[in-house]
Design goal:
This protein is α+β, with helices and mostly antiparallel strands. The protein contains six helices and seven strands. About 30% of the residues lie in helices and about 25% in strands. Helix 1 crosses helix 2. The two termini are about 30 Å apart.
C-alpha cells in the first residue's frame, strides 16, 4: 500500500477518528455509541498529547488510529478496568510525565485490514516509548476468543492456555507475536459480557 502514511493526529482529525471507531465497533450491540470516546474529548487529548495519538492515512483518508496516554500506574500495580485506567472518556488519567505508555484504543477500518497497517501503528508506539525513554507500553488485550470456550473453561483457564500457546486467541496471541509479554487476566475489563475480559500485555523498553 504505497500511499499509506502513519503520522501523529491533529485536532482536525478528531471527528474522523470518532467516525472510524463507530465503524470498527459498530457490529457490537453491547457497546453503544455513548461509550465511544467522543470527538470533542479526542480533540482535547490530541492538543495535550499529540505525539501519543497516531493515525494511518491512505489517499488522505484516515483508515486506522492508535490512542495512548502516559501513566505512572505500573503494570505491576493492581489491574484496572479500561474506564478507570484511562480516567473516563475524557482520558483524565493522562500524566504528562508518566513512565509508561498505556494503550487506550486502536482500530483499523475493516476494508483496510491485512495490509500491515496495524503492525505499523504498533511500531509507531514502540518507537515513541524508545524516543521518550519510557519504561514500556502496556494495555488490556481483549480475550476475544473466549466466547467460543466459555462453556468448558473459566476465563482464568482460558487465559492460561493462551499464555502457553495451547489456544490461539485472535487478539492476544497476535499481540504476543508482536513482542508483548502476557500477564494476568482482567475480568470485566470493558463490561460484564463474556467477551469483555482482557489480559494484561506488556512491552518492556530494553
Amino acid at each position: 500500500m504505497n500511499s499509506l502514511k502513519i503520522r501523529n493526529a491533529m485536532p482536525v482529525d478528531a471527528q474522523a477518528i470518532f467516525e472510524l471507531s463507530c465503524t470498527v465497533y459498530g457490529d457490537n450491540p453491547r457497546l453503544p455509541t455513548s461509550d465511544y470516546i467522543p470527538a470533542a474529548a479526542l480533540m482535547r487529548h490530541i492538543e495535550r498529547f499529540a505525539q501519543g495519538i497516531f493515525v494511518a492515512e491512505v489517499d488522505k483518508r484516515i483508515v486506522g488510529y492508535a490512542i495512548t496516554i502516559r501513566t505512572n500506574h505500573s503494570p505491576k500495580d493492581e489491574a484496572l478496568n479500561w474506564f478507570d485506567a484511562i480516567g473516563g472518556l475524557e482520558m483524565m488519567k493522562h500524566e504528562p510525565n508518566g513512565a509508561w505508555l498505556y494503550g487506550v484504543d486502536f482500530g483499523v477500518h475493516p476494508d483496510f485490514r491485512k495490509h500491515g497497517i496495524g503492525t505499523k501503528l504498533y511500531r509507531a508506539r514502540f518507537e515513541l516509548v524508545e524516543r521518550l525513554d519510557l519504561d514500556g507500553f502496556y494495555a488490556g488485550g481483549m480475550l476475544a476468543g473466549y466466547v467460543h470456550f466459555s462453556q468448558r473453561l473459566s476465563i482464568e483457564e482460558y487465559g492460561e492456555h493462551v499464555r502457553k500457546g495451547r489456544i490461539i486467541d485472535p487478539t492476544v496471541s497476535m499481540q504476543m507475536k508482536r513482542g508483548f509479554q502476557p500477564g494476568s487476566v482482567i475480568q470485566n475489563y470493558c463490561g460484564d459480557a463474556i467477551d469483555c475480559s482482557a489480559m494484561m500485555i506488556v512491552w518492556h523498553n530494553q
